[in-house]
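step: validate -> pass
step: tokenize input -> pass
step: predict -> running
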Amino acid sequence: MNDLTQGKEGRQIILFAIPMLIGNIFQQLYNIVDSIVVGKFVGSVALAAVGASFPILFTLSALVAGITIGGSVLISQYFGAKNYHKVKITSDTLQIFLMISSLLLSVVFFIFSRPLFRMLAIPEEVLPDAVRYFDIVIISTTLPSFMLFGISAIMRGVGNSLTPIYFTVGSIIMNTILDIVFVLGFGWGVEGAAWATGISSVAAWLALWYHLNKNEENIIRFNLNYKKWEFDWENFKLSLRIGLPSGVQQTLVGLGSMALLSIVSPFGVATLAAYTAAGRVDMFVSMPAMNLAAALSSFVGQNLGAGRFDRIRNGLWATLKYSTAICVALSLVVVFFGEDIMHLFVEANSPHYNEIIRIGKEYLLIVTSFYIVFSTMFVVNGVTRGAGATFVPMLITTLSLWIIRIPLAWVLSDMFGERGIWWSIPAGWLIGCVGAILYYNSGLWKKHRVKTALS
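step: predict -> pass
step: emit ->
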């Protein structure tokens, strides 16, 4: 555990973010390797099928992830206020909720997977692989992924961002090895990639849960004996009040990705495959800003619980400097080497080879040029999210995504083809960034400190 209410703000945030960043680098490297293996050795149709599943899987977890954010905010504020009994109750309540909700959602999405893909206008040649991949992943990974989300959020709330990384890295290494064995060795195609993901997710969750109960302090243990679990409805409602707007926000983002997918899909297999491959690189470059924002949220939560507003302001400026420098460096790499990066994902004798390379390079050039805007938006939202002020950011996301980005993608795609879709992405970021800055400067987020943290 780590007390973030003392010490140099910038140093604490960067040191807290580094373990999460390392874990997510490995996670994104896995996603990239997974796409390379599928694209190179199964084909562009299979790559498009895997990419078609991602927005649905993201949407599935988004609403529940919002509740996780609410629990993490509560835990960080309770921990900052030294209220350890509330930390334990919040931890148990969060994990019980995640366990039940993950089981229910996995069954529902498994039943309706094929109609969902048809609604998204997935090309007929991609549909069978997409359904096979999605069905395996949804059944095998929903429970362990949700639980890993929860445990990681709890540990971040008490200042420990390092321990979950060990298990995440182990899972990713296992996943990559199984990918190669199942896809290249056994020739299982997209089903092999799906089973590799499922097996490694289950192994990571069980290992981290075992470690948590054997080695962590009692205030965040989740006992294997269900009779000792504590579910507190008042605590859950408070988590819901804080986390539901973020959950709705993330769900809107997920639904927005699905809406974009439905706009991309009619352009064919090459565009969908390029969108998948470039999207993997896109996530990799945007990752530092997202992790710094998550670290800042935990930092804000603890310091808000301790009443240290001066540290919050200093922490924000330090985080903005770090995220801007990193994003500029990564953006330059992608701009200059985007075409070379795209070659990694495409089978040399694919009939769509040249088209996929061209479209993917174009996507990266347009989107990557605006990562400073994305980075600023995420970091500023990290402050308000750490304070528990999540409703206004939800409204800002709704505006930038559903009133700007999606309609603009639809209109511009009709005028300029797939290039118009790519330009809609930074347009949405720009509106979201302006809204986030205006809300932060208003100071209204400061009123969302959890009053019960001191009781």
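step: describe -> Residues 7 and 396 are 33 Å apart (CA to CA).
step: cleanup -> pass
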